[in-house]
Input
Amino acid sequence: MSEKHDWQHIYMLLKLAEMGAYRRTAKISTEYLAGKLRISQQTASRYLIELERKGWIVRNITPEGSLIKIDETGNKELQKLYSGLKLLMEKSYPPSVTLEGTVFTGLGEGAYYISKGPYFKQFAEKLGFEPYPGTLNVKLVSDYDIKTRREIEGYPAVEVTGFKGEDRTFGLVKCYPAVIDNKVKGALVTALRSHYDVSVLEIIAPVCLRKHLNLKDGVKVKVEIFIQQ
Output
């Protein structure tokens, strides 16, 4: 079953609960249900059949209408929805934010820092992948994206600790897991001795993102950034 149908089923389940079928049996005609959901009677009947097949409801058809009760499995789905919404509403930070910008060629410093042993090892351990030696640079343009990028600085991050080299000190790097163009998992990294301001995203990934996603300078990309809770 597709994700789209799953959400339609959950919405139907929620409506049945509102009509009294949660923890008790309710008499509900498909005609009334269709009017309530603003769908055809045929579609309402099909959804009820599908919910019954999934074991989410128990239904007994009578001449006056269907006697419907949300079953234990359906109750668990509603509880899952409730828990997810409760968690979302009570969080101090959003679970994720999506920024959009254009790809540009950077100064090439990312490869130098990423390849440093202590950094590289921590990236692999804390982010779950060995980064390609280089960053994808994305320039944010809209006021919304720049403002949101600035807000991210105040959100919890995966921290890669600094270290002292032979001739210099390497500082703390804050990382935020990310997905680039809804296809490749990577991370936004900040403070790699960067010369860029908050209008620029520096993204690392286990692959060369330019080649893997066929990105050229000026191409727009979306980066979904996940916040640590």
About this structure: The mean pLDDT is 89. Helices lie at 3-21, 30-37, 41-54, 72-90, 110-114, 117-127, 143-152, 209-212. Residues 96-226 form a domain with the Elongation Factor Tu (Ef-tu); domain 3 fold (CATH 2.40.30.30).
